[in-house]
Specification:
17 strands; Jelly Rolls; binds fe (ii) ion; five-stranded mixed beta sheet; 314 residues; alpha+beta; binds 2-oxoglutaric acid; 25% strand; globular; seven-stranded mixed beta sheet
């Protein structure tokens, strides 16, 4: 049967003993703790969202919102186009039963159900693009975090999001049993997950400068340290995220998340004085890639447009 570890008792992760993620108050002297992960237990108390947000509330407010629901966090190669209401009302049944139609990564309809019986999935919702008023429901992040991203002017944040193709804020609605596999967040940003409904079991693994994305193949629920010897001796933290909790995922730390219930979470990535440089470097690299493509297209057009005169001249 499912064992349900309590919030302050972590499990063994294979041969490695996991450390319970420290549960702290915004009133504690947390600066010394912030080298590693923490869960703030009272950070959301004053937020309007803490009183308002639930899956039912979003269905009431935005039920007709139509979205593409990726069936896999990392691959995103297919999903279902459905409404927020249909998604939420069919959480017990799963993707195969939810009204809507299957689409590939470009949003083109698929003739057959590609889900292969997979019924755990998340509605990753870039809600703040469509409904910026939701930002008013989010309060301040703990000052100890030195979050430089939270109060960026809207147009600056929008420009950054456009360039990186990532959002600083997003909402996850997830079916019970959904797993977000091990990964690290973009451009060295600090991650945070604010929990509004249901419980999540979070595993965090310290990063190393030599890490490559291959580490993402490690499954903390079936740990194989022989296949990933570089993870031997690495700090592993675990804890349960319950409504009202805010977990901080330090820059570049690997994380794996299991929804123990149907869940509602606000994800917020940000930069601080410590990782602003890395974020900007990552963003400039994105911009360079984008520019190169634009330049290529422009040159291509120029060449094609001028082709007749070149041909005439010859
Ligand atoms: O809550 C989850 O399932 C994982 C979210 C996450 O890791 C992220 O937003 O980067
Ligand atoms: Fe993440």
């Amino acid at each position: 049967m499912n064992k349900v570890p309590s919030a302050d008792i972590a499990e063994w992760c294979g041969e490695q003993k996991a450390v319970p993620i420290p549960r702290v108050s915004i009133h504690d002297d947390v600066a010394r703790l912030l080298d590693g992960p923490v869960v703030f237990t009272d950070a959301l108390a004053g937020w309007p969202a803490a009183q308002k947000w639930s899956i039912d509330y979003f269905v009431e407010q935005f039920g007709d919102h139509f979205g593409l629901i990726p069936a896999s966090f990392l691959d995103g190669s297919w999903g279902k186009a459905t409404s927020l209401r249909d998604f939420a009302e069919n959480l017990d049944q799963g993707a195969a039963h939810t009204p809507g139609f299957w689409v590939d990564r470009d949003g083109l309809p698929l003739a057959d159900d590609p889900s292969d019986g997979i019924s755990t999935w998340s509605f990753y919702w870039r809600a703040f693009r469509d409904y910026p008023q939701l930002r008013d429901d989010i309060g301040a992040y703990p000052s100890a975090l030195s979050n430089l991203a939270q109060n960026l002017p809207g147009d600056v944040a929008a420009a950054f999001e456009k360039i990186t193709k990532r959002d600083f804020f997003a909402i996850y609605m997830s079916r019970q049993g959904t797993v977000t596999p091990l990964h690290r967040d973009f451009h060295g940003t600090t991650g945070s997950l604010a929990q509004f409904e249901g419980n999540k079991w979070v595993t965090l693994i310290a990063h190393d400068a030599d890490d490559t994305n291959a580490i993402g193949g490690f499954d903390p629920e079936r740990p194989d340290f022989d296949a990933f010897p570089q993870l031997r001796g690495r700090a592993v933290y675990q804890g349960r995220l319950s409504p009202g909790d805010l977990v901080i995922i330090p820059s570049k730390w690997w994380h794996h998340v299991r929804s123990e219930d149907h869940t509602l979470t606000l994800s917020h990535n940000f930069f601080t004085p410590a990782n602003l440089g890395e974020f900007l470097r990552g963003m400039l690299q994105d911009l360079a890639t984008r520019d190169t493509q634009a330049l290529e297209k422009l040159l291509h057009q120029q060449i094609v447009q001028n082709a007749p005169s070149i041909l005439e001249d010859s």
